[in-house]
């Protein structure tokens, strides 16, 4: 059974950017300014993505100035509603979002979805990973599956999101692709990473579902072993971590982050934003931001972004229906 939420073309897209001029600070400005609308508070993933992108765009001379506005509320729905309701006056605004716009529109957290906005560009992403405690007897997905077969209820997987949230869906997706019934997977949510780690070390959970960048930080600190990553190929940031696919589990997943414009955004404005983001990938300013945050370049523009989102919506929707969340 195959579950695919990512495409090799994401990474390959970087190759198409090699024709872009490598230096833009000498007057190759694409946009005078961009105002970034951030649907969550300061310090979160959306905030870091918007501010990091703005830092690279302005530092490289592609954009004159960048401004930022945090608008929390409604699981991101407040900012989406604001952008839609004030569309005519928001042509200078890009809103950052990520996989939750798909999950939360499916579950009705807010009434809108990505089709109600102008799709500008998928920009970066973070794969998911399953990790186990450093002293665990489990060293691979085969070991975890064997433990599950021996005692399903005693082989709980934890995560930092609520039941039906991203960490749960990733765990269910991986187990389903491994031939297990996702409904039988025992998932335990924790509201803080420290609590999840404590549960892992105490044996309350056998494995933890988390973002790859967080997993790398924990592995480098010697706290966990990464037993599977939801990427097509091993990721340079931590090449020792095996993919799910190389272990015979045919599934991929990426928590993308990208940018949206107001509905009805004029075509020339859309093209301008897409050009700025495309050229950004070839700058040292962007590479510094990307490396600092441990992001993976995942560039989808316009129609490619829509195709990806529609595929992700179908896979997540089908899985959530099976799990009883829809």
| Helix and strand element order | EHEHEHEHEHEHEHEHEEEHHEH
Number of helices: 11
Overall pLDDT metric: 90
Tally of strands: 12
Please give a structural write-up.
This protein is α/β, with parallel strands linked by helices. The chain is built from 11 helices and 12 strands. It has helices spanning 8-12, 45-59, 77-85, 100-106, 141-150, 166-177, 193-202, 212-220, 267-280, 284-293, 303-323, and strands spanning 3-4, 31-38, 63-70, 93-98, 118-133, 157-159, 187-189, 207-211, 224-229, 251-252, 254-261, 296-301. The strands form 2 sheets. Strands 2, 3, 4, 5, 6, 7, 8, 9, 11 and 12 form a 10-stranded mixed sheet that branches. The chain has a two-stranded parallel sheet with strand order 1-10. Strand 2 (31-38), helix 2 (45-59) and strand 3 form a beta-alpha-beta unit. Helix 2 runs antiparallel to helix 10. The chain is globular and about 60 Å long. The two termini are 21 Å apart. Residues 6-26 have low confidence and may be disordered.
